From TrEMBL:
This is DNA mismatch repair protein MutL. It comes from Desulfoscipio geothermicus DSM 3669. Belongs to the DNA mismatch repair MutL/HexB family. GO terms for molecular function: ATP binding; ATP hydrolysis activity; ATP-dependent DNA damage sensor activity; mismatched DNA binding. The gene is mutL. This protein is involved in the repair of mismatches in DNA. It is required for dam-dependent methyl-directed DNA mismatch repair. May act as a 'molecular matchmaker', a protein that promotes the formation of a stable complex between two or more DNA-binding proteins in an ATP-dependent manner without itself being part of a final effector complex. Residues 214-332 form the DNA mismatch repair protein S5 domain.
Amino acid sequence: RVERTMPKIMVLNEQTACRIAAGEVVERPVSVVKELVENSLDAGADLVNISITGGGIESITVVDNGCGISQEDTPLAFQRHATSKIKNAADLDRITTLGFRGEALPSIAAVADLTIKTRTPESSEGYYMHIRGGNMLDSGPAGCPVGTSIKVKDLFYNTPARRKYLKSKSTEGGLINDLVYKMALVRPRVRFVFIHNGREVLRSPGSGNIPDVLAAVYGLRAAKLMLPVNVVEAGIEIDGYVGKPELSRSTRQQITVAVNGRTVRSTTVNLALEDAYRGLLTVGRHPVAVLSIRLSPEKLDVNIHPAKMEIKMDREEELRSLVARAVRSVLRDTNLTPVISGVA
Ligand code: ADP
Ligand code: MG
């Protein structure tokens, strides 16, 4: 006779639950950078300094000049589902911050070695905490400027399966590079500095002027080949720059889309750009574009995936046609020569 006894059901302890949840939020080093920088932006920072070594596998440090966290709140920031950004379920329908799930810091701290130093403007001194694999090792007063600095190292040291699945340092670093470029393009008022292995890769001026960031990211020559797009229609606002066809690329990587300030992947916008550039680009070529879309937060569900890279909008079809029309009219107004099919 087969024995069919199942062990009794038990609620997992917080540390185990956290390690499991971490797998969804922190997939690779770029996820850590994304979460930390989003927190800096939510904190109102206008200076974000990102410094990584070894493709972010060795270390990631994000320093901001935002509002900081009070000493009393700092331990809370590392508790799961603890957030200062929403108060109740109703707030989920009108999210204006990038974060709201209260999962990033506890998740990162569960699978890495993390040190935070933070200070609010009201406080005369800062506070630091050192957490490793979810265990608090040390904490106390710290001398630091107003704002927050978080250093993450030994990512996935206690989850070897995850660590093994990471790609090379240069691949992981490249993903971080792409993300930082996109965030800088989407937030032109913020000064971003990105340093990899001690070398400065990006410094955006924080002037609020997208062409300045375009020049910092793509170079002056490319920036001069970008055309402004601005439309407001039926409560959807589109603002950004699209490249002349000669600036085309072989991947969609240089298409940057933000919805309400959040960098997202949007099939809808990709399709709209394809519509707009039809006849101007050869097959397999994609435009360079930065498009910032604003619509009322009730029209948006950002809570469909823990990493929030994908979102759901009420009006995808409307958006597609609006983006396509706006971009096409900008391209039409500048005298462009269509490519002859088959000739690059
Ligand atoms: P969420 O961003 O979803 O609220 P996180 O785990 O990312 O959750 O952060 C938890 C809380 O810690 C935030 O709600 C915020 O109050 C605080 N916090 C995190 N990072 C920063 C930062 N760089 N500056 C100020 N406060 C921060
Ligand atoms: Mg967050």
